[in-house]
Structures are given as C-alpha cells and as structure tokens.
Amino acid sequence: MDKIDIPKKAIYRLSIYYRCLQRLKENDVETVSSDALARAAGVKPSQLRKDLAYFGQFGTRGLGYPVEALGTTIRETLGRERLQPVVLIGAGNLGSALLRYQGFQKEGFEVVAAFDANPDSARTRVVTIPVFPEAELDTFIRDQTIKLAILCVPAEFAQAVVNRLVAAGVQGILNFSPLLLEVPADVTVNNVDLALELEHLSYFIR
Amino acid sequence: MDKIDIPKKAIYRLSIYYRCLQRLKENDVETVSSDALARAAGVKPSQLRKDLAYFGQFGTRGLGYPVEALGTTIRETLGRERLQPVVLIGAGNLGSALLRYQGFQKEGFEVVAAFDANPDSARTRVVTIPVFPEAELDTFIRDQTIKLAILCVPAEFAQAVVNRLVAAGVQGILNFSPLLLEVPADVTVNNVDLALELEHLSYFIR
DNA sequence: AAGTGTGAAAAGTTTCACAGCG
DNA sequence: CGCTGTGAAACTTTTCACACTT
Description:
Rossmann fold; homodimer; DNA-binding
C-alpha cells in the first residue's frame, strides 16, 4: 500500500468529491472540469487536480473528468466497492438518534446491529435495527467480521469497550465520547467531539 | 485582535487542554508540567508549550504551569468567560437527541431554545428546552443577541435557514447538514458530517 | 483552445534543541 | 537542576504557473 504519502485531508476531500460526482451523475452530466467540480466541493481547482493525481490520471486534457468513471475509481479507492456493515455500541440518547439517522444508509453504510447494556430500554424500541445486550458484542463482530463501529457509550466505559472491539477485529471506530482512546497503530479512530466543536466556534465570535 | 497567526488547530487543542486542566483541578492538582499535560491531552510536550506561547507566558521555569490560572486564561482566550447561549434549529431525529445531550451543558453552553417547522411533533415533547415554531427564530435571536446556532435541518432547507441566522446576527454555526454552506467571511461554520467521517474510516480498514 | 498533470514555490504546522530563568 | 520559552529546522500541505495533451 502506498497510502503513506497522501495527505490525510485529501482522503476527506475524496469523499466530498464523490458526493458531488453522484449529484452530477443524477443530473446526467458526463464530463466535469476540475474548475466546476472544485467549486461544487468548495476547494481550489489546483487542489482538486493534485488530490486526484495522488491516485492516478483520470482526466482528459482539454476536456475534463468523466463523471461516472471517476466516481467509480474514488469509490474503490475509499474501499467502498461493497456495502460496509457497521455496528453501533451504546443505544442511549445520541446512539439511538444515530440508529434512526438516515445519512449513513444514504451513503451506503448499513448499521446491522446495535449493542447496549440495557437493550430493552424505551429509547431503543423505536428503531428497526436490532439492539442486543452488550455481552453478545464480541461474538457478533467476530462472526460477521465487522470492521467498523460507532461508539456512543458514556466516557467511563469507552476505553473498555474499545479494547473489546479491537480484540474482536474492528479496525475503524467513530468515537462520540469526549475522551482520548488508546488503540493499536493499525486501528483508526475518528473522534466526533460535539462540545469541542461548539467551543471552537466560540473562539471566533467576538 | 492578533488571532491572525495562530494555527487553527491550536485553537482546537486549547479546548482539549482546558478539559484536562479541569480534571486536574478537580483532583486538587495545583501545578502541572508541559510533559504531564501533553500526555493527558495526547500531544507532544513541545507542541503544548508552543501552543500556550501563542497567548503569552504562563509557566514557571523549573516548575510548570499553575493549573487554576492557566485554566482561567484559556477559558478567557476561548471567549468562554461567560455562559454562551445557543439555539438549535431543526428538532428532528438528530436535533432532538442533541437537545437531550448533556455534553453541551457540561462544557458550559446553554441551549436556550430550539426551533422547528413542526414544534408540536412527538419527538420534541421529551425535552425541557422550549421548542418554538421556526417563524419566531429571527426575532428571538435578535432579542436575545444569540451568537451561536446548531443547525440540524434537512439539507434542502439548510442554506435558507443559514441566511436568516446570519441576517439575525449569528456568528458561529455548528452544521450537521452534509452540505457546503455559504456565509460571509465574519461567520464561522463548523461542519460535522457524520457519513463523511464513516467514509473516511473505511479508507483505513483493509 | 480548453483544461489536465506536475515540479517548484509558498504557506502552514510540528518538532527539535537548547538558552535562560526560577 | 528542572522545565519553560523560542528561534531555527524539518516536515506537511496548499497554491502557483506552465508545459503538455487532446
């Protein structure tokens, strides 16, 4: 894998480009210039071209990029050729909202199961995704070879749950606990820290 | 304001340091070295020192940083001396979960009101924060001089709502719509794009 | 002529190493 | 002596400018 020298931020942008390409495809656009796609994605054209160049040559000089083919390539690059199953741990307030959130399915992720210390609680009954007791987490992940997990448990349990997830084979964790998680180098953690984001904003208002 | 040449990422880290300092304070620690605080925050000691140096000199050589005083300074730097009122727009699935989310209050933000096209919907009844019809948004923000908003409306309405927020005086927006928002230069938008974060992870699993 | 691909410059950020202070 | 503050070096990422292809 020569993923080493590609800026991490470029990977994020790839997802954004992919979304824009999908919209273009829906509108039956066949070709798009770096200029137009960059504007849609909110980046500079030169950056878009540089980002795409990390993965190969996709454009035709004088013409632009083929919408469909570029979309497919990015999809494959992101490892999204096939539907990724995801589990969610902690179906509390935020967790159960995420279970109902349509954005994940819309982008082609399937939340196949949720786990909670108290699976019968009122909140979890609303959703159609099955909620299992937390104890079954390890075997489920192993049996279904799940690689992605969304973590919504209270901060004090987060590290313990992460250790179990990692041991069971999870390689990517979307973490909503405001906490620094310790994981081996081959596991990626993405932190979504809502209070932190709000705090960051408050610096910029005068 | 000489906020110009401070790395944006340093601002994020400031919030993290602040949290760590709060924990230390709770444990009655009076002084902390850059080494210890950096480890708690998950950064290199040299980076911590550099970050703090952007704002002045707070440490005592040979000793470390005073926990309480440094906390206060960071708090002021982040513009958090006083409780910041926040409004939330769009009390749907995700929005109403955020209304119930305790993390914001825990970090000293008060979500004072929510607005929704359909304020009487079942979901919004659970929460104690008042949910007003969307039409009252503009006057409320103006009257209460609200500067921060959390945006959870469906993507197709997001830009229109943002225009109203900005016109009413909002300067910071925490945006949960997977959409590029257009705002004037003096308004800051923080995007939390959940599907994007998951997609990003899927690149790193093999 | 239009628009990509890319080396090189610029800008931004992190890390180092050590002088200097308590 | 211990630990901060900081200039300079190293590294990363973005932007530019233009050669090159269709």
